[in-house]
Amino acid sequence: LRDPNAASEDPRVRLVRAVLRGAVDKTTSVIDYQPLVPLTGNLSDQYIARMRLKPPRSSQEILIGPDEYMPLAQAHGLSTLADRRLIRLALRDAHEANKPDLRVFVQVSVDSIMDSAFAPWLAAELRANELTASVVALDISARDLIEHLPSDAAIEAVQRVGARLCLTVDDESDGAQRWLQHAAFGLVRFETPAGGAGWTSVATRLATVRSLGKIVVTGGVAQMQDIADVLKHGAHYAHGAALCDWLPGFGFDFTHSVL
Questions:
Q1: I need a labelling partner for 122 at 20 to 30 A (CA). Which of 81, 84, 220, 230 fits?
Q2: In the chain, how long is the greatest CA-to-CA distance?
Q3: What distance in Å separates the CA atoms of residue 83 and residue 117, rounded to the nearest whole number?
């Protein structure tokens, strides 16, 4: 029997569900990487991973970005499938690249952090790809953390696998302060402030993170002025179109990129 609600369901939800429940391969997923260029930091071969979804059997080059599919996935209980797909494909790429100092930042939902099966699954994926845990940094939204409040035990379970944790500061409320100071997050990532406010608007938070001994990553660096501003405010690493656009792999030349 057909589900009477299926005809009225948002076709975007059906599409996202079909892709995320399907085989984990690149016929329905495109993974891009953007390098983290060292400013005052001293590590190379670090990249942010981005996954876009391709409709199956589509004759057109339609790609659905995470800003569109993740809210749908979270609303329909599919976010952990999206997280695992991104991680699995990124780890396969890392295995093929065979670069000893590679680190890939992958954005994951708090739903995955709170899933008791996630940490063992991640450890198994790393073993299957013959990779050490240092190759992956799990990038988690402050807004997501504030909304779901995972326990310290859940966070510690992921830490025991050995992956680094990165906090993305996408919330300006006082609730984000707790997570900025949380010892588990040694990496903190800021995106370009919205509304043209400029990097000076988050200078106090950047200084706070540095005073805690954490690594500051700045994203969305689209203009040359942004580079000057994040340097002035002490960012360790930056990524964005002004430095390098998204790449299909790990081919960025870091030897000529240190600013």
A1: 220
A2: 63
A3: 13
